[in-house]
Each structure stands twice: as C-alpha cells, then as structure tokens.
Design brief:
This protein is an alpha+beta fold. It folds into 3 domains: about 150 residues, MutS, DNA mismatch repair protein, domain I; about 55 residues, 5' to 3' exonuclease, C-terminal subdomain (DNA polymerase, domain 1), CATH 1.10.150; about 160 residues, DNA polymerase, Y-family, little finger domain (Dna Ligase, domain 1, 2-Layer Sandwich). It has 15 helices and 12 strands. The strands form 3 sheets. It has a 5-stranded mixed β-sheet with strand order 5-6-1-7-8. Helix 4 runs antiparallel to helix 6. The longest helix is centred in the last third of the chain and has 22 residues. The radius of gyration is 23 Å and the shape is globular.
Length: about 425
Amino acid sequence: MGRGDGSGRRVSSPDADDTGTRILHVDMDAFYASVEVLDDPSLAGKAVIVGGMEGRGVVSSATYEARRYGVRSAMNVAQALRLCPQAIVVPPHFERYSALSRQVMGMFHDITPLVEPLSIDEAFLDVSGAGRLWGSPGRIARLLRERVRAETGLVCSVGVAATKHVAKIASTLSKPDGLLIVSEAETRAFLAALPVRALWGIGPKAAEALEGRGIRLVADILAAPRPVIERALGRAGGARIWQLAQGIDPRDVETERTEKSIGHEETFLEDISERAALRSELRRLADRVAARLRSGGWEAAGIALKLRYADFTTLSRSTTLADPTDVGQRIGETAIALFDELDLVQPVRLIGVRAERLKPSGAGVLALWDDDADWRRVDAALDGARDRFGAGAVGRASVLGPRRDVNALPTNPRPPALPSQEPPSR
C-alpha cells in the first residue's frame, strides 16, 4: 500500500485494460499546499506546510517534500517543524481553495451529472453513461487529468474501477499525479495483495483485531472462515469487510449527499482564561457556522460545543433545539449556554461550535410567530455584504480586535455549490 509521502506509488500503462469499470475517484494531490505553490512559484520543490503561522497551529496540508519527513495533516505545526525544520509554513486561504474546487467540480459535471463530492478536493464520478461522448473510463480519466492541469495548473490522481471502494484505493495508490486502472476481472487479485488496513472502514483498532489473529493481508480475509472475521469485527462489521475483500460494493454514486454536521473550531495563539473572551469567540464561531448553514440550505436541530484545556483534556457538550435554526444569534446563545455550564478549571487552548442533526431549510413546522425575525434580517444583510465584499468584510463589533486563533480552516470543509446546485432562495 502506498504511503502519504508518495512512496510505493503504482500507475497504469497507457494500454491498461479498463473492461468492466465505471467509477472514477478523483483526488487533488496535496490540494491546499499545491494551491499555495501555484500562487507562489518560489515555493516549488520545497517542503511547505499549510497551517497556523504559530507553532500551536494544525497542519491542514503539506507538500510531498514535507510528507517525506513524516509531516501529516492534523499534526500540530510545532511537531511538524521538529520533523522537518526547513519547512516553510504558510497560512491557509480558504476562499482561494473554494474557487478552484468549484472550477474543478465543474469539469467533472461537464463529463457526467453523476458526481458525488466527498470533500472540497475529491469526488466520485459514474461515467457509465458518458462512453459514447467521451470514450472508455480510462480515456475519460486521462482527459480529466489533462484538463485539470491545463486549466488550473494543479494535478490530480485518479483511480478507475468497477466499484467505489476499489476506485478509492486505486487513486490513493497512484499518488501523486497518477492514474491506476483496475479492471473488473483483476479486482479480486488486486485486493488480495493489499494489507487489511487498505480496506475502507478498517481503522487502527479493527486492524489490530485482525492482525492479532494473523490476518494481515486481504488474501488472509479471503482464506479465513467468515465467522472468524465476524468475531474480530462484529457481525455487521465483519460481513461488510468480508464483502469488500471480495470486491463486492453495491453503493452507487450519490449526487445528493446529506450533510451530517457543520462546524468550526479554533486553536488559540495563547491559552485563554477569561470567560468574556471565550464567549466572544463562541459568537464568532457561531456566526461562521450559521453562514455555512444558510449557504447550504440547512438548519440545525442540535448544537454541540467542544473545549480543550491547556493540558489537552477535551470536553464535548451538546443539546437539542426546540426548533431547527440557521440564525447565528440563536446558535451562539446555545453554545454559550453549554459553555456556562462548564467549570473553567484551567485556561482554554481550543474551542469549537458544531451544528448537528441538519434538516433542509424550512422543513419544520411553520410557527405563528418568529422570535428570530429581526436576527434573520441581520443575517441576511451580513450574507449580502459578505457575498459582495468577502468573508471578512463584516462581523460583530463584540469580536473586533486582534486575532486570537491560529487561522485554521473550517472542519470538514465541503465543496462549494455549483451555480446549478445553489439552494433555492427563501
């Protein structure tokens, strides 16, 4: 199995057999870091880390030059710099990433309407109906890679297979800047040679449970009696992994993917002890969460708070709302109420707000009286100003002042909606 630094990379020959394939998994290589290098060519060929400018920040992305030293996403920047002292740390520019994501996703939709974005920088495509216009799946993958490079200057890796699961594994193995095709007939042999950790859904604990029974390769899963796998992973988990090892994955590409949650969190430059300052940060985070809810056409039925103390002890609290909302004021008040229930036993290193149990906007029962009508008008005005002048153009007066956070990206950022996918106006 290939590693995140590009070692073990596997790619297909130009005449590779793509018989029986229909699914493409396209993944932009080191997306955030590659965009920063694109915009500043002096960074080319260097170890680059995208993250908070201070050592307390978190790595959002890193070039392959940095990954070869062990730098990984979600790693603390200070730790990353210990591994790779020569790395150049640059702050993230999320609006730029969103714009390029929208451009790339538009290219996917030019090929097929069956596109399932997984995140801001990867997607599944079902090209089974695109052959007459564009050619075989392998040819489509090559055309897409060429077009992405020509029109954006970025590179992507593509896996082509008969199922989503195998296509995802293939794109990972082909990184960086590669194409790996697994024909339907080759699927079982392709999987058999992989370590069990390569299977989608096998995390560290599941891998340890299998490896403790001498099951290290997918071939070992295929050779083991099914009850042995189910005893290691549970009946449901064992059945699913046994199917994936066989190359069985009936999931289709889903063009409409339901959001589960939307959140923002931040790590502070310096630990904060003052409750007033933390409440102010919660207001700011709540406004950002609410803006993302509205732009996606969602309302939240639940709100969660995350807090991490200076010693890395992490607490989570959540509550259910009486009525779903996308109003920043309501989300902020709820998050602050959760916060006020906590004892501030030591300074705070990180704080976050997450909207949960999302529902389409307007799906709830229409109330006779809207207590948030005034705040909705404020949010609408803020949305208009942000659309016109940029995300940082306006905000609450209560959160004005020097930045306290390390300029982190939103958690689990979703790809921006294409013009034809924009939610209906309310």
